Amino acid sequence: MKILTATEMKEVDRLTTARYRVPSLTLMENAGRSVAEFIQSRFPNLERRRIVVLCGKGNNGGDGFVVARHLKKMGAKPVVYLIGDPRQVKGDAAKNLKRWKKSGTISFDVEARKGLSLPLSGHLIVVDALLGTGVRGPVEGRLREVIRSVNERDPTCSVVSVDIPSGLHADTGDVQGVAIMADHTITFTAPKPGLILGAGGRHVGHLTVRQIGSPPTLVEETGKGRLRWGEAAEFIAFGLPRKAAANKGDYGHALVVAGSVGKSGAAVLASWAALRAGVGLVTVATPEPVLPIIAAHTPEIMTEPLAATKAGTISERCLEGSLFATLLAGKRALAVGPGLSTQDETQKFVRVIVGQRTVPIILDADGLNAFVGRASALKHSEGMLSVTPHPGEMARLLGCSAKEVQARRVEVALQAAAEWNAIVILKGSGTVIASPDGHAFINSTGNPGMATGGTGDVLTGILAGLTAQYGTDDWPRLLAFGVCLHGLAGDIAYAESGEAPLMASDLIRAIPRAYRQFYSECGRG
C-alpha cells in the first residue's frame, strides 16, 4: 500500500465517511478496539497488569478512551489520565470520553491536579494517545513534562503509541521538541512518512498497521508519494500456483559465488536459502579447498571449483580465458559476496565480474567491500545490479558514519540508487528497497532476533532464487517480496525460539511456513 501524509490520511478518512457512509465515530471505535486487541495479543495476563492510558484533548485522545473501554471489557483495569481541560475535548473524542466516564472508572484531569505522578516501572503498560498526526509546532507545557517522564521510564515498562508517537511529525519524522519513545506503534489504514523518515525509526519501535474501515482503493487513489509499505498484498503476483506440467528448468538456475576457507557457512546459507525460495537449480562457485564442505551439506546444491589463493580465497586466475563466462552460461541470476573475504585478488575478481553485468547481480557482504573507496565504479549504464548493505557497509561505501546513514535511511538509499543505477536494499529495521527512479518499498516484516551472523547471507540467497525464477520485469517489487519473505521467516522463527537464540539457519527452515502464510494472505489458502 502507499504511505500517506497526514493531509492525505485526513482525506481518506473524509472520503470514507462521505463516499462509503462509514461514520467518523465508527472509525474511531475501530481504531481504539484494534489497539486494545493488539495489547491483549501481545501482553499475557492482561487482567493482572497495571495499565495507564494517557489521553490528549484531540481525536488521538478519543482513540485512547476507546482503547481503555475495550481493555476494561477484556478484564483489564486501565487508569485514564486526561492531559488537558475536559471542556476542550470536542466531537467524537468528547463522545468517547463520556462513554468512558459511564463505565464507572475514574479518570484524572492532570491540568486540574497540576501534576502527574506515575511509578513507571513494574511491567506497567502505558498507552500513548496524547497527540496525533495533525500536531504542528513544538510540544510544550504539561504535555512536554508527561512525555519526558514516560521516556525516563523503567526498562520493564512498555509503551504502545496510538497511530503515532506523540510529538513526532507525521510527514517528516522530526521530533517537535520532545517525542514519545515507543516500544510499539499501532497506526491506522496506512503508514505515515514520519513513522519511517527522520527520527521516526528511533521513536516508533515495532510498527503495526491496522485496517479500521477505509477501502484500500482510497489509499491508492489519494496517495501521491513514491513510498510503499511492503506487505503481502503488494506481492500477490508472486503467489500464483505453479503449472502442472512445470519442470525445474521453468524456475531458473542461480549461480552463487561465495565462500572461502573458514567462511564456507556463508556459501551454504546463501545457496540453501535460494533453493528454499523455489529456484529450479543452484550452483555454488567456490574456492577449490572449500568445495567438499559445501557439497556435503546440501545434496541438492551443485558446485563448481574455482582457483584459489594461498589463503583459500578466490584467485583472479579464474578470470583467465572463458572459465567464468562458461559458468555463467544458462544462469538467470548471480549472487556475489557471502564469505568471500577481503583478500586483494578476490576483491579484484569481484570488481571485474560486477563490471560485466551479463546477468542480474545481487551484491552483498565482501562483494560490497570490494567497492569501498570506489563506489562510483558500481554505476553502469547497462546490466542489472542490486546491492544489499547493512548500515555499516553503506557507511563505508559512502564514506560517512553509520549514524548518519541511520538518520536518513530512505533518503540515503534513494540517493545511492540513483547514483549507482542500482536497486539499493538498505537492511535493518524497516529495510528500504530503493530504485533509481525514486520509488521505494519499506519492509513490514522482521524482528531484532535477526541481528545475528548469517541472516544477510540468507537474504542474498532468497533474492537470487527469486530473481532466477521470475526474471526482472518488475525487479524492485520482486526484491521487496524477497525481503518481506525473509522477514516473515524470521518472525516465524522468532515465535518458536525467541530473539536471542535465533540463528540464520532457523530462517531457512521457516521459509516453507512463511510461504504458506503468504499464500494464505493472498487468498490461496
Description:
The protein has 2 domains: 6-225, YjeF N-terminal domain (Rossmann fold), CATH 3.40.50.10260; 236-521, UDP-N-acetylmuramoyl-L-alanine:D-glutamate ligase. It is 41% helix and 14% strand. The chain is built from 19 helices and 17 strands. It has helices spanning 6-20, 24-42, 59-73, 91-102, 110-113, 141-151, 200-204, 216-222, 264-276, 291-297, 323-328, 344-356, 366-369, 391-398, 402-407, 409-420, 455-470, 475-497, 504-521; strands at 51-55, 79-82, 107-109, 125-129, 158-162, 184-188, 206-210, 227-230, 253-257, 281-287, 302-306, 333-336, 361-363, 385-387, 423-426, 432-434, 440-443. It has a 10-stranded mixed sheet with strand order 8-17-16-15-14-13-12-9-10-11. A 7-stranded parallel sheet has the order 3-2-1-4-5-6-7. The radius of gyration is 25 Å and the shape is elongated. The two termini are 22 Å apart.
